Amino acid sequence: xxxxxxxxxxxxxxxxxxxxxxxxxxxxxxxxxxxxxxxxxxxxxxxxxxxxxxxxxxxxxxxxxxxxxxxxxxxxxxxxxxxxxxxxxxxxxxxxxxxxxxxxxxxxxxxxxxxxxxxxxxxxxxxxxxxxxxxxxxxxxxxxxxxxxxxxxxxxxxxxxxxxxxxxxxxxxxxxxxxxxxxxxxxxxxxxxxxxxxxxxxxxxxxxxxxxxxxxxxxxxxxxxxxxxxxxxxxxxxxxxxxxxxxxxxxxxxxxxxxxxxxxxxxxxxxxx
Length: 273
Fold this sequence. Notes:
The protein is an all-alpha fold and 273 residues long. It has a single domain (2-268), classed as Na+/H+ antiporter like fold (Up-down Bundle), CATH 1.20.1530. It is built from 13 helices and no strands. The longest helix has 32 residues, at 177-208.
């Protein structure tokens, strides 16, 4: 998050006051519609409890760090994308633990896991604050105080961030490789469907709000690209690295990069209507 924050400005947070409808639409799509759609998908398919909990966790996370790049690639509204990423990251301190606890408690198998681990919502808030908010604040301060230095280090730090995320994914899959092999077909199918629904939710939300195509593309990507790195941190901190939960979160981290690239490439070759 520190690397992403190096590219943020105070103006990104002011965007919500200048043009509130697109930003609010993106946040509603991210934190209200996506978790609700995820719940409906879980109720329909009835996956194993750990997999369902992983799906709820991913849906509760804020937008992922690469969403801004994909928005630029897709000829979307990059300023809007950056604003939604920044604001959703701040809101995630409250919205991520709330959505995880609320929707998981509505489905009996995942509620049993929550009761077994005795989930402490305040501890999740503290963890998100440490993992996201402090680096976000630090990066913005560095950009404000040392703009020239920021230009030099932002690229390398972004690459290091991707390597760290990649390491998290590899560790999660390696530690639960037998579970991954056992459920590989189910996981690939569920993540693909879940991610497609997330992207569709973002686009449909934008249509309902009557936003221009440029904004629709960015909100679609913001809703479909989740911060699965944060999800993995929470899995290992609060769920003892629960195998099926870790796998679904880790695979989401791989899949949304592929779907984001594919969608970005598709839209890059399509004129804005």
